[in-house]
Amino acid sequence: MSTLPAGYRTVDVPAERLAEFRGTDQLAFAGTPDPEIEKLLPFPIRQDRLMAVEGPDGAFAAVHGSYDFVMPVPGGEVACSGLTWVAVRPDHRRRGLLTSMIRTHVERSLDRGEPVSALFAAEAAIYGRFGYGSAADDVRLTLPRRAALRPVDGADALTVHLERVDQDRHGELVEDLYVRAGDGRPGWMPRATPALRARTVGDPPAWRHGNEPLLLVTVRDGEEVRGLALFARKESWGESGPDYTVKVRQASALDPAATYRLWSFLLDLDLTTTVETPMLPVDDALLQLLVTPRPSRRRTADNLWVRLLDLPAALTARRYAAPSDVVLEVTDALLPANAGRWRLAVDASGTADVSRTGADADVRLDVRELGALYLGGRSATALAAAGLVHGERTSLDGLTATFGSSLAPVCPWVF
Ligand SMILES: CC(=O)SCCNC(=O)CCNC(=O)[C@H](O)C(C)(C)COP(=O)(O)OP(=O)(O)OC[C@H]1O[C@@H](n2cnc3c(N)ncnc32)[C@H](O)[C@@H]1OP(=O)(O)O
């Protein structure tokens, strides 16, 4: 059902209108057209997953797209429609164009058999109204040079190698280490296409903001790469000498020794005084290794927002941490098929059976909060303390235990 004002219509985006799609996005985000970026980095979204809204003059007034991710979830994975490139021209905003695009997005995602959608929110206040719940946080640390790490056996035997990043040669290696280091962590989206991998290692001059060209450091056990980081230094000279900053784009390690070796290299580069980490999960090994876990600066932010589109398919796609037999009463203003009472029966193996029931509800919540719980990074008990979930304390604690994940969810790159 369209909510568009008169004169507007939803349209596909043919190849010949890709420049107009980009231009609409740039108008909304104050972006600058850059042919060099377009040459170096192929457009990352499949043509058939781009949509636009035409205004009364026939030009694009709003656009959006989605990635076809396979998102890790606790104990499994799920087809996930990664909403992105959402943009409404400033001269067409607050007329319901986003609201209409969200309807298009959820309908098309469901038609493709994608039970879940996820996104990064440009502004955190936008997406809750559409049933997206804040499902993960990330932390970024600013660390002083030589921040000490607790020692790890075996780290001294590892070697480090430094080279400039080569976009053509290094994409596969960087992605391979990234996926293996993720180790099934919920939300850890793979960069499955060549276009996304190109962005991971891409280094167009317009992205550098005064940094040197991107570097790759690998940590090796003999010839085997056990860890790597993408980073660049920013030159700066103060009154008392060099004051460079190390900006780390990605850091991936396969074991504690490689983690130690990688970060001890990044934390003690000559001429530098400050190291900025990439987005890290809230339980990242670096946070455990720091002798003084009080960085110069620690910023915690909302990471993935998750929306259940097909409730039973989404809930059965993941495994659960504890057996359960609970009745959930769910509200969903946008997708009534998800609303009502559902029995979530989890067996000893963590496998769920989800079915409609007429039984009394143990826990009442909106689909937004179910999305927040989905990746295992939120507590039903804590959400209830904020008045967002309702039920007896034993039911809430049980739900918290059932939905929990041993690894905190995060996606360490923005899509
Ligand atoms: C996943 C991503 O791609 S995130 C990127 C989102 N894009 C941007 O931030 C780019 C700049 N901004 C824009 O393009 C637009 O202003 C958008 C997409 C944020 C909103 O588009 P609009 O067409 O104006 O939204 P629409 O008119 O459908 O508003 C729906 C509701 O959301 C609210 N809303 C919209 N944007 C915001 C916001 N930034 N903060 C808080 N509320 C918002 C509206 O007030 C409205 O509320 P109501 O239903 O109570 O009246």
TrEMBL record:
Binding site for acetyl-CoA: V86, A87, V88, R94, R95, G96, L97, L98, T99
Domain N-acetyltransferase: 8-156
UniProt GO molecular function: acyltransferase activity
Keywords: Acyltransferase, Transferase
Top-level lineage group: Bacteria
One Pfam family linked to the record: SCP2_2
Annotated catalytic residues: Y127 (proton donor), F415 (proton acceptor)
InterPro entries on file: Acetyltransf_17, Acetyltransferase_Eis, Acyl_CoA_acyltransferase, Eis_dom, GNAT_dom, NAcTrfase_Eis, SCP2_sterol-bd_dom_sf
Enzyme class, first EC level, given as a word: transferase
Entry EC no(s): 2.3.1.-
Subunit structure: Homohexamer; trimer of dimers.
Similarity field: Belongs to the acetyltransferase Eis family.
Name the UniProt record assigns to this protein: GNAT family N-acetyltransferase
